[in-house]
Amino acid sequence: MTSPTTLRVFNTKTCCIIILALLAAGCVEIPKDAFVVTPEQLKQRQIETRRYDGIKEEDLLVACSNTLQDLGYNLDNSETKLGLITASKQRDATNSAQIVAAVVLAMFGTASAIDRDQTIRVSLVVRPVNDSNGKPMTSNFFVRVTFQRIVRRSDNSIYTQTLNDEQLFQDFYDRISKSVFIEAQRL
Amino acid sequence: MKYAFQALMACVFILGGCASTNEHVLDMGDETQLQKRSYQSRVFETSDKERVLRAVISTLQDLGFVIDRADLVLGSVSGTKLEGNQIKITVSVRPKGNDRMTVRANAQFNVKPIEDPKQYQNFFTSLEQSLFLSANAGE
Known about the structure:
heterodimer, A: alpha+beta, six-stranded antiparallel beta sheet, 5 helices, elongated, B: TATA-Binding Protein, seven-stranded antiparallel beta sheet, 7 strands
């Protein structure tokens, strides 16, 4: 049995919790090290970067741009003088494992959201390799690529992700290398 | 009834923290424009704008940003970092006299401006490492 007094205490408590939750929702704090380069990020740099020698910057950028088109990306922005290409594409994001899980949960009467579609964003940057005197070289370049995706779920909620799977970058650069070869041979 | 009044007061208190549209459009905070500019800027001893811009792009990539756009003539670079939450940054590089460059950064976290000078300090430290140059405060 709940006495009227305990009921009132419970109400005040609930009230306080709701107010605190409301207040807290407004103050998600920025991570302290948001602008500090961590050792993990330096490792990620290795994974995201490849070096190409004996090619002009312009030819390398064209080869990269062609590859992005091969992969179905639309060009959003570019600044060739700084070696930058930014592109994106919208794709389906459903995957069978999530659907199976959702169906199992639905059998127990619980509805769960699944990934529906996604925007994949990529920025690709070409920069010259510096020689031993710190001067940029004219035919040796690094290519670095970064991927993000913004996923919309079946309940219209959104989550975001930066991609860091090593295999993804391996496969991506295999294609860039082929394209660079084709560009070099002018095929 | 007593609790309804308390709840109402709490709502008034919460809403009291919301700024008007004009305040948001002009970002009128407690800081003056000059204060903001001073912790968001550093001066580098180089006249090579392209080199600084390329270093800014490298630094942002190191930090996990996707570069949204860049412009050599304007001297600006913008990027977005998405890891559960969103950080957007714009960095501009402008000549200061004949032999120096002013780098200025401003960033936002989700829907709020980043106003902690420490965050900008960290950014410029990361940029220094990639430029191999040390940064000087404003004047």
